[in-house]
Design goal:
Helix 4 runs parallel beside helix 5. The protein is α+β, with helices and mostly antiparallel strands. It is built from 7 helices and 11 strands. The chain starts with 9 loop residues before the first helix and ends with a helix.
């Protein structure tokens, strides 16, 4: 006699239990005071919410809620035609201080293939717009920012394809661009569209640069998140804190994805590098 399998996967059961404890207030959950740089990723779904209503104002309010120092948006432009931007970036900057990373050859669009990087304080050192391979129009935005708090940080904002073969090609291209021995503190974030693990997952490709994958944080669909499509990962141990979802009533309705966020602390990786150098010097003396 065969053992009966569970009719509902364990991750869905866990999400159902967690949903009962989700906050019902209209504000973001309050945590400890920020130490470092708050970074976030948000697929805004072309400003169309779970109620199928196009509402850029609502999307902007979620971005305001998150209160990130650096945020990467996906699907912030129309997909076809002139790829027009969908948010009022001028108003967003006045209200939040977030400024878009400047791009070349972009007229009416906010970003590159729907990818936008906004930051509050600092200076953009360099920007690269990368067209990713695959059947769909996908891209990545690479920006190097000198943070006002000190130190340089490279941001790779990406939105990978829906097809597994395309995701594999896109992951390899991103890794090839970086190089496995790059010393610049780098954060990859965005909608990677990969929920699978194991040998066939495109996430494995990133491990050559970003090391072991951090724990998955379900962010899709926003009403009952069971799939970890959105990711934040760093190429240095200690660079990225625990990744969390920004789970509020407004965020659940504004898009089909919940935003994700984490703290970046460049001082921690600098201390780790110094410790390693000291240990190496001590070994040479003995």
């Amino acid at each position: 006699m065969h053992k009966k399998k569970d009719s509902i996967p364990a991750n869905i059961l866990a999400s159902l239990k967690k949903r009962r404890r989700r906050p019902e207030t209209s504000h973001a959950p309050r945590g400890s005071a920020k130490v470092g740089t708050l970074i976030a990723s948000y697929n805004v779904h072309k400003c169309v919410g779970a109620d199928r209503r196009f509402d850029p104002e609502r999307t902007s309010r979620v971005i305001h809620e998150i209160d990130a120092d650096v945020i990467a948006l996906q699907e912030a432009d129309t997909r076809f035609g002139e790829r027009m931007g969908l948010l009022d970036l001028g108003r967003l900057e006045r209200e939040t201080g977030l400024t878009p990373v400047p791009l070349s050859g972009v007229n009416k669009a906010h970003g590159w293939h729907g990818n936008v990087v906004l930051f509050k304080k600092g200076m953009v050192r360099d920007v690269h717009q990368i067209k990713l391979p695959g059947l769909e129009p996908r891209g990545a935005l690479v920006a190097e920012i000198d943070l006002e708090s000190g130190g340089a940080l490279r941001i790779i904002a990406a939105h990978l394809g829906l097809l597994r073969r395309s995701r594999a090609q896109q992951a390899r291209m991103i890794v090839d661009i970086l190089g496995s021995k790059d010393e610049t503190p780098t954060v990859l974030l965005g909608d990677l569209n990969e929920w699978r693990l194991g040998d066939r997952s495109s996430l494995n490709t990133f491990q050559t640069v970003f090391g072991p994958l951090p724990p998955a944080v379900p962010s899709f669909p926003s009403g009952l998140p069971v799939l970890a499509l959105d990711r934040i990962m760093g190429n240095r141990r200690g660079l990225v804190s625990t990744v969390e979802v920004h789970d509020t009533p407004l965020a659940r309705m504004a898009s089909d994805h919940l935003p994700i966020k984490a703290m970046i602390d460049l001082t921690k990786i600098e201390e780790t590098a110094a410790d390693l150098a000291a240990q190496a010097a001590a070994r040479l003396r003995t």
